[in-house]
Specification:
The protein has helices spanning 7-16, 34-44, 63-70, 103-108, 119-129, 162-178, and strands at 2-4, 26-28, 49-52, 58-59, 75-85, 88-92, 99-102, 133-145. It is α/β, with parallel strands linked by helices. The strands form two sheets. Strands 3, 4, 5, 6, 7 and 8 form a six-stranded mixed sheet that branches.
Length: 179
């Protein structure tokens, strides 16, 4: 578990971590950003297969086993989910919020860029550019929580922010350079 500058989360983890074996917690006392934290965690991992999963989302019991069964070396798995807000749920198509892949490919692409927003979409584009295929799960394996405090809705880094427009321009220019 990576904790990105949230002391309350660290306190909660310290209360429950004794219940789990093989549990590791990495804490940054300042907010370094989701994608920088993910890169750090994946570098520390000793496993060949990794999954990227949101901290406020909920895995079904078979999330790991089902997605692992779909994974082949030359592809990555994009999970299908249900969005929820309060008690309301809506099924959505496969999105890049949660992916399952070999660590080798993550490292080969040098992980996520160190932007604060949309790095998952940009990373998926790079996976495709190096020839990996997408396997979309046909089964809902997790629930994605929607909330107003989500970075997607944030004025500073969200979808409609100046920052996001600049990042999208960088991605567009990079992709044009590759093509």
């Amino acid at each position: 578990v990576g904790i990105d500058g949230c002391k309350r989360t660290l306190d909660k983890i310290n209360e429950i971590k004794h219940k789990y074996k093989n549990f590791f917690c990495y804490y940054s006392d300042k907010n370094i950003g989701t994608y920088v934290m993910l890169n750090s965690l994946i570098l520390k991992s000793n496993y060949d297969i990794i999954t990227i999963f949101g901290s406020d989302d909920i895995m079904n019991n078979d999330y790991l086993s089902y997605n692992k069964s779909l994974l082949k070396f030359n592809n990555y798995v994009v999970s299908k989910c249900v969005n929820f807000k309060g008690r309301t749920e809506t099924c959505i198509e496969n999105k890049s919020f949660s992916i399952f892949l070999y660590k080798y490919h993550f490292l080969k692409l040098n992980g996520y860029d160190e932007y604060r927003f949309s790095c998952d979409d940009e990373f998926i584009k790079r996976l495709k550019n190096v020839g990996l295929s997408t396997i979309n799960s046909d089964k809902i394996t997790y629930k994605k929580r929607l909330h107003s405090n989500n970075i997607s809705n944030n004025d500073t880094y969200g979808i409609n922010s100046y920052y996001n427009k600049e990042i999208n321009t960088i991605f567009l220019n990079r992709n044009n350079d590759i093509l």
